[in-house]
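tool_call: predict_structure(chain=1)
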Amino acid sequence: MKEIKIGRSRLQFVVGDITRQNTDAVVNAANKRLAPGGGVAGAIHRAAGPLLWEECSRLGGCETGEAKITRAYNLPNKYVVHTVGPVYSGSEDDPRLLRSCYINSLKVAEENGVRSISFPALSTGIFGYPVYKAAQVAIKAIKDYLAGDTKIDLVRMVLYDQSSYEEHVRALQALNASVELG
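tool_result:
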């Protein structure tokens, strides 16, 4: 595990299962319908049980970069924040939309009293975003948010495997080096 302090908050990086985190909320890498699917969305829906899909089906979907919140049902969390990451295309919109996913997820979580939240590496699975590039966007967005006036104490990046973890730590080190160098 790697952890850094940002203002009064902490940002952690761990290898693990997003459905087994002890944070107030977990983030679902959702599709636009908020329906069960593969990857993170499938795992979260399976662990939460069918009531999650019942609630999601009443939300009217979610656009790329937006975030919506539901109860977590059978998950060990209070909430699930659903966000739709961009399908990687190499366009200028990709980082802007991915950044919006993190910022809007943190905003909706905070509006609902969340003090700790776990994110997967959004858009890096079937949506094809290169892990290192996605990590750079994610870490900068989270750091920018936590540097502001926030009540969120902990943001945890839950990485699926050691390779993804190492890419996130490398992106963190590069971002910190560029900040220190000015």
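agent: Residues 6 and 143 are 7 Å apart (CA to CA). Proceeding to next step.
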